[in-house]
Amino acid sequence: MADQTYDYDVLIIGAGPGGYVAAIRAAQLGLKTACAESRETLGGTCLNVGCIPSKAMLHASEYFEAAAGGMMAKLGIKVSPELDLDTMHGQRRDAVKQLTGGVEFLFKKNKVTWLKDRASFVDAHTVKVGGETVTAKNVVIATGSSVTPLPGVEVDNAKGVVVDSTGALELPAVPKKMVVIGGGVIGLELGSVWRRLGAEVIVVEYLDQLLPGMDGDVRKEAAKIFKKQGMELKLGTKVTGVSVKGKKATLTLEPAAGGDAETLEADCVLVSIGRRPNTEGLGLENIGLETNQRGQIETGEDFRTAVDGVWAIGDVIPGPMLAHKAEDEGIAVAENIAGQTGIVNHNVIPSVVYTMPEIAGVGLTEEAAKEKGYAIKAGKFPMLANSRAKTNHEPDGFVKVIADANTDRVLGVWMIASVAGTMIAQAAQAMEFGATSEDIAYTCHAHPTHAEALKEAAMAVQGKPIHI
Ligand code: FAD
Ligand code: NAI
């Protein structure tokens, strides 16, 4: 039963992985719940234009490359593939439709009311959703994030010459030459898709290495692998302008450290320099809630904001902008609102780049562990020495386990391997249970599996791997 003073016990603004999961858990806990979402379908960035459609294109393009690039032939399967891009896009759209429809079904099943419009605060317990005004005892801000624009560069997804990630998922034809601005997760994933399908891809990254935030060894190895795959990397380089004439773009580049400018022509430019929190038009000024310097809403560990009755989760608050982080915060905030104890361990949030091979990590990087003052012991094991990876012709990458030299407790695990995204779950679970490297080393792993490389990397922490 809702508190009679309000229309709802909980109103969630935004139905991405943070918001929709919070809504379902709140309803499961017996709270009268509504979720405002202005998009035509539920699921937010992740299901509509993010995680899911990008993985649909990565999966399909991986098969295409396996057929076109010689892997199939290596396995004794002769094929001459022909790209049917319309069908590839069709299966992407279908995956999105099914999953967003699935969330709608779950809303109905759990009796979550979907308010289909934009929401903005009138006061802390009153929210305007389109023309309607609703009240709630608790309001959760789960409005997510959107693309960070590059000053002076105009994205026009419909035209398809300068695009953001949403436009890059929808290109109607394979560009001849694609320049990716930003060597982060989106640039490398979507750059990989179009490279596999035949585009010449050049990645321009401001920093002197790809994938900021990841372990240094992983970043270096990733750059080698992407180069070997045929991507051109222009590291330590900034884009100072992009002009478009008809179907062609001309970029002006400068060394980040200063120096002579150069120009580069492209048929398609992908702007992927990060994402920023969505707070515009939310009426935060009406409830006296300020954002921090990065535009994020600050919360306590229980996801309460500075305003009583108002909570926030997901991409709009500090932390990695990842769907599973948003989901876990969604569960925790609903449990806290219901009077339970909802906790998210922000020290153990895995991250995965879904390229081939995949790149994954959890916990501290070697650099961060040292910066925090830990004496560390690291063990590394190459995938080349893992029997399954070798047999599958997937020799690239390694697993690295970073342990506290004094206690042997695992501080971080980083890896590049064809199935690193799946393997990292074991590392996260081990760390959640406070495992030592010895715990992982003495856990029996099935043979032959890629996961044995994690066991061997853990054995390498004590200097005793078997297979190298
Ligand atoms: P969002 O998913 O952004 O959802 C917020 C929702 O709120 C949106 O639907 C928006 O329409 C709605 N909204 C905003 N303001 C209002 C308002 N005022 N009123 C009503 N509704 C409003 N993460 C991963 O973990 N794995 C991946 O593989 C991955 N791939 C990605 C690929 C791409 C191309 C992109 C762009 C992102 C990817 N991400 C991935 C990141 C992931 O999508 C986000 O971290 C995640 O969606 C954040 O969830 P959220 O609920 O906080 O916000
Ligand atoms: P990102 O933060 O991962 O990478 C942006 C890159 O652009 C950085 O390396 C940065 O140094 C560089 N950069 C910034 N300004 C630049 C400039 N002017 N010129 C050249 N380089 C510049 O951001 P990205 O790739 O846009 O992704 C946004 C978010 O979406 C990520 O933070 C990630 O959390 C999420 N995401 C997650 C995925 C996953 O989990 N697999 C997949 C895709 C996105």
Helices, strands, pairings?
Blueprint: E1 8-13, H1 17-28, E2 33-36, H2 44-49, H3 51-68, H4 71-74, H5 85-109, E3 113-115, E4 119-123, E5 126-129, E6 132-141, E7 145-147, E8 162-163, H6 165-169, E9 177-181, H7 185-196, E10 200-204, H8 216-228, E11 232-234, E12 237-245, E13 248-255, E14 262-266, E15 268-271, E16 275-277, E17 310-312, H9 323-337, E18 351-353, E19 358-363, H10 366-371, E20 376-382, H11 387-391, E21 398-404, E22 410-417, H12 420-432, H13 437-441, H14 452-461
Parallel strand pairs: 1-2, 1-6, 2-3, 6-17, 8-15, 9-10, 9-15, 10-11
Antiparallel strand pairs: 4-5, 5-6, 7-16, 12-13, 13-14, 18-19, 19-22, 20-21, 21-22
Bound molecules: flavin-adenine dinucleotide and 1,4-dihydronicotinamide adenine dinucleotide.
1,4-dihydronicotinamide adenine dinucleotide binds near residues 181, 205 and 352.
Question: What keywords describe this structure?
Answer:
468 residues; alpha/beta; FAD/NAD(P)-binding domain; Enolase-like, domain 1; seven-stranded mixed beta sheet; 32% helix; binds flavin-adenine dinucleotide; binds 1,4-dihydronicotinamide adenine dinucleotide
